[in-house]
Amino acid sequence: MARNVYGLDLGTYEIKIYDKKTDEIRREKDVIAMKDKRYIFSAGDEAYEMYEKAPDNIQVVFPMKNGVIAHFDDMQYLLESLLKKEHQFARSEYLVAVPTDVTEVEKRAFYDLVFHSAAKAKSVKIVERGIADAVGFGADIWKEKGMMIANFGGGTTEISVLSNGGMVLNRLIKIGGEHFDLAVLNQVRHHRDFLIGRLTAERLRREFGVFDQATDASLTVSGRDLVHGVPQEKSISIGLVRAAMKEPLEECVEAIRSMFDRTPPDVRRGIEDNGIYLTGGLANLRGLSTYLKESTGLAVTVASNPELCAVRGLKKIILNKEFKKLMYSMLDEDYRWLR
Ligand SMILES: Nc1ncnc2c1ncn2[C@@H]1O[C@H](COP(=O)(O)OP(=O)(O)OP(=O)(O)O)[C@@H](O)[C@H]1O
Question: Which of 72, 83, 95, 202 is a Cys-bridge partner for 89, taking CB atoms 3.0 to 4.6 Å apart?
């Protein structure tokens, strides 16, 4: 008998784990800190705390890149160290949310990560992340004729069109929170000759958001003056931060529009009625829903705690037999049903 069942949403920014036994959702930053490029120094939130503050011999590494596993061994270590905090995680069953628009090799890596880890999984099942999101949102996925889910995450934006419990269209764009942060960082460097860290850039975009009436706000942040090479504090205006986010935002809107245009007419009608459902942590960005509404002409609804929507869906799928057919094993012969 399996000891426990876990739901895993392995994000570029944060890992979310649902534990059936305790009925809890845990989240931890998807980061490890290495010492002298050889030893693991710390993992998860503790490692993230060291980002941009660590001494030279400590390297802070993000094992996921653009929604897929970039450093397999580091990711495996991180997952194991998170699961070890649980009791008796060996011989458990796992349900993993995986982006749809990735290669088979990338998809397989999610499976191998769990199956061949010290977790000694009893079984590993996969569910498309867009579907987990829809279930987490509370949609009646079997009956809905047309739904569009846009998951704005830390490293990617995944757009899914669903109908009657199946995926009709899906696209993973390599634009997420970290790209917005880099855009802000570069904008501040070019226009103010001032170098800020990525975490400061994240703070600026979280503070200002992308859309509301405010035009004269500013925030004083620390960085390095590039003309004199000294640490300084400077006031950064809302206009500069929002100008930086314009380009990545427009790319996301363009992807939503083109997917909507490619959607079959019957499914489209459903989307016109329901609007777009926003999930993923970046959906918390102030003004994003208004911006998308204005630029696409569709209604927009943001999930509550949108970053947890997919893992909430995993929980429902694990607990509820009616969702059983949404999961599949990569060992099943028909696992390529989406292609
Ligand atoms: N209140 C907020 N305002 C703005 N951005 C936010 C807020 N809360 C979280 N975020 C952003 O959400 C992103 C993380 O979202 P999420 O946890 O869904 O990503 P992920 O699942 O790890 O990444 P991905 O889905 O791309 O693999 C980060 O970039 C973070 O800055």
Answer: 83
